[in-house]
């Protein structure tokens, strides 16, 4: 019986040790899992930050490309409009040369000029104001008109135009002294 009791005591001790070992392994496993969860959460935060940064950069790139496209469009429109102004000037000279003679050709030139000017206005090209006195931002003084008052425009030699409120071509004017 003593042997049986010793064996039972040893079995109990072994069972306790095994339970302790399993508990320690379980604790180590739980601690390890908690550490792994913490590392994964940190990794997730890092990846979220990288993703947010990539989305931000993509949005900024799209905005930059849109700004550049608008600027390019404005530049192309400006160059095109400047070239058309020569045609406007030529049509106005043709009408002036007709000396108020009414013929089908003169009428056709007037209609062509009217159509061209209305098309230019649709795209923001308008004649620069010369009625409200000299403005160095809109007019280029090329001479002095003795009959005009000081800082007033006496004669317009060539019309000026603006494109979307920006100067496209200054009006060449004679100014009073």
Automatic annotation (TrEMBL):
One Pfam entry name: GrpE
Record protein name field: Protein GrpE
Protein's GO biological process: protein folding
Biological function: Participates actively in the response to hyperosmotic and heat shock by preventing the aggregation of stress-denatured proteins, in association with DnaK and GrpE. It is the nucleotide exchange factor for DnaK and may function as a thermosensor. Unfolded proteins bind initially to DnaJ; upon interaction with the DnaJ-bound protein, DnaK hydrolyzes its bound ATP, resulting in the formation of a stable complex. GrpE releases ADP from DnaK; ATP binding to DnaK triggers the release of the substrate protein, thus completing the reaction cycle.
GO CC annotation terms, alphabetical: cytosol
Subcellular location: Cytoplasm
Family label: Belongs to the GrpE family.
């Amino acid at each position: 019986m003593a042997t049986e009791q010793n064996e039972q005591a040893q079995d109990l001790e072994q069972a306790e040790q095994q339970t302790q070992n399993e508990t320690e392994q379980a604790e180590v496993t739980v601690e390890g899992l908690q550490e792994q969860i913490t590392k994964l959460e940190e990794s997730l935060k890092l990846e979220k930050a990288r993703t947010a940064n990539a989305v931000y950069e993509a949005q900024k790139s799209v905005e930059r490309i849109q700004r550049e496209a608008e600027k390019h469009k404005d530049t192309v429109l400006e160059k095109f409009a400047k070239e058309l102004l020569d045609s406007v000037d030529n049509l106005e000279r043709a009408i002036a040369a007709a000396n108020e003679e009414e013929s089908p050709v003169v009428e056709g030139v007037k209609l062509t000029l009217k159509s061209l000017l209305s098309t230019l206005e649709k795209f923001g090209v308008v004649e620069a104001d010369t009625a409200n006195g000299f403005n160095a931002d809109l007019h280029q003084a090329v001479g002095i008109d003795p009959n005009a008052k000081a800082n007033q425009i006496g004669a317009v030699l060539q019309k000026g135009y603006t494109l979307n409120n920006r100067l496209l071509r200054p009006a060449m004017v004679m100014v009073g002294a």
